[in-house]
Amino acid sequence: xxxxxxxxxxxxxxxxxxxxxxxxxxxxxxxxxxxxxxxxxxxxxxxxxxxxxxxxxxxxxxxxxxxxxxxxxxxxxxxxxxxxxxxxxxxxxxxxxxxxxxxxxxxxxxxxxxxxxxxxxxxxxxxxxxxxxxxxxxxxxxxxxxxxxxxxxxxxxxxxxxxxxxxxxxxxxxxxxxxxxxxxxxxxxxxxxxxxxxxxxxxxxxxxxxxxxxxxxxxxxxxxxxxxxxxxxxxxxxxxxxxxxxxxxxxxxxxxxxxxxxxxxxxxxxxxxxxxxxxxxxxxxxxxxxxxxxxxxxxxxxxxxxxxxxxxxxxxxxxxxxxxxxxxxxxxxxxxxxxxxxxxxxxxxxxxxxxxxxxxxxxxxxxxxxxxxxxxxxxxxxxxxxxxxxxxxxxxxxxxxxxxxxxxxxxxxxxxxxxxxxxxxxxxxxxxxxxxxxxxxxxxxxxxxxxxxxxxxxxxxxxxxxxxxxxxxxxxxxxxxxxxxxxxxxxxxxxxxxxxxxxxxxxxxxxxxxxxxxxxxxxxxxxxxxxxxxxxxxxxxxxxxxxxxxxxxxxxxxxxxxxxxxxxxxxxxxxxxx
Amino acid sequence: xxxxxxxxxxxxxxxxxxxxxxxxxxxxxxxxxxxxxxxxxxxxxxxxxxxxxxxxxxxxxxxxxxxxxxxxxxxxxxxxxxxxxxxxxxxxxxxxxxxxxxxxxxxxxxxxxxxxxxxxxxxxxxxxxxxxxxxxxxxxxxxxxxxxxxxxxxxxxxxxxxxxxxxxxxxxxxxxx
Lengths: 578, 177
Prior knowledge:
The structure holds two protein chains of two kinds.
Chain A: E1 20-22, H1 23-33, E2 38-41, H2 48-55, E3 62-65, H3 69-83, E4 87-91, H4 95-98, H5 101-109, E5 114-120, H6 136-140, E6 146-150, H7 156-168, E7 174-180, H8 181-185, E8 187-189, H9 209-221, E9 225-229, H10 231-235, H11 239-249, E10 253-255, E11 270-273, H12 280-284, E12 291-295, H13 301-304, E13 315-320, E14 334-337, H14 340-350, H15 357-379, H16 388-398, E15 403-406, H17 410-418, E16 427-428, H18 439-449, E17 455-460, H19 461-466, H20 471-477, E18 482-487, H21 492-501, H22 516-522, E19 527-530, H23 533-545, E20 550-555
Parallel strand pairs in A: 2-3, 2-4, 4-5, 5-7, 6-7, 9-10, 9-12, 10-11, 12-13, 13-14, 15-16, 15-17, 17-18, 18-20, 19-20
Antiparallel strand pairs in A: 1-8
Helix pairs in contact in A: 1-2, 1-7, 3-5, 3-18, 9-14, 11-14, 16-17, 16-23
Chain B: E1 2-12, H1 17-27, E2 32-39, E3 45-55, H2 56-67, E4 72-78, E5 83-94, H3 97-105, E6 109-113, E7 117-124, H4 126-136, E8 141-146, E9 150-153, H5 159-175
């Protein structure tokens, strides 16, 4: 067997009737075969041949020139999460490649399908510390679902077909294809076969009927169940299946941060967000539950607080596509393996119709406590300063059905708490990695992927400055992102921890900021600043009515805290309202 | 409680695969006691045998994380009693009458003889290899090298063959054959 670089696939044979093209053109034509419409990237020495090939396909592929490779990844993530398609990036070798590592790690932790093509030095100089050479395969081993170096033009279509199949199937994730410059320049006979099977990779194992039966039995017996809805529902496109399951079972449902919008916020069985700054009810009632049904979620420590005390009186059903997540943090009494799109309807069929309205009322009582103590004070237009909760509420009122994009920190928590979701794929946020600077580029990707929808970004003054160079991308590519800058002059979440847990020693969390109006003006982005309650609605209205991008700077209270809060590592019922 | 486990990994023959596997150990903070790599009985499939000492729960999670690597076909985890283990050791030792006695009594092979030293080979369990090491030490042991264990599974069922059949069924299902 001729060596193809893939031990389970024979090398492609030369055929006379196939078009003979360069490896670089093969990259682009492979993209087209996968239905790629948009690429986020940044050229450089070792990837020039691919960019040269792309030049001939400008009418078929929209390339967005970002200002930093990290942002190519975050934009591709935003694109993928808004559309459900695989995000695609191209960068050069060396620094271009290493700059993407944060984005890859973010996509890895948040299960986002992304394919990154990185240039590499010519294969005869590999390992010689050539200019802009870095061992990118080694570097990305722990931040990719799969990676592969291609050193021959004829292996490019097979590698890219694998990349798209692996990135988007099973539990999605980022894939890197590192292509040497000689492979880009080499000639090959082009033929593209999309991948549907790789023998060493079974994306979703056969569904075990016994697991479904056992899960149904526990659900039918349970008196105080709660469903924990994760991003797996959105990734599997199982929103309707979830609704059917919930409506037949009558079970209250809470969502993880990434599971938000899988169920509309106003669904009668929706009881709020889980986790450290989630809603009071799903946290405080955790102890009372006799059954937790985890649907496509992974018991992250920001959700469980102390995993050993999570659902301490409950049996746990874990519906999950990734076997490595089962029993990783929380022991599952029943593991229902497989895509929830397929397992949920099987389960719904086996459970009996039930009414849990008395149990749901207990959640409503808790919600009313939270509403009185936290929500109403947070969103009311009172006090000396504007506050983040009321800003989110004001934006949510005027941007009905927008995609919410957040950065990381206090604004992320306020936005996810007070924004309202009507349909799925309406939140894009960095959950697992918690990447400051994620918001702006992710919002660019989201808007490009879903141009018909409004995209509202909430970002802090710290986070905006981490990737503010992307305002240039917004201007060049005319991306209509609505940016709400919550400026409190602090790294607010760290400041909050310093206040609560570090004796108010505010070590290096105060920011002396640039003039954001000038930053907006430099990038020719319409701008307005508000400081008073009475101007807020009008400013949001101006943002909504302005065509294209807008930067709304809101000067908010400097020392506001996000509550409720489960202190890190504590059982979730230790949730604090103040 | 820490116990010994033998992890066998079947993978595609891909450059850099070993590094992918060891990354999982580093990430989960598990130390590798020994590691051997070879071809397996299945064409194109490589086999790694890794010995670890750790908590059962931690090892079970580790096994799943390794299996999650795309180019890994299947991972099995065994306790030492479930497998036939063998290690190989080489000793370079000064020639003497005592050493030649030990060679006879311990079923040791002689690989090379020189005027002033001999090279010995011993296969067996770790304990036997260590025992011979102790015995040779007083007579001028110049060099010692020992492989990690290789393992054959005792079970009558050929689990990897069964898994490959399962994979074949999945292939037919995926390609609609």
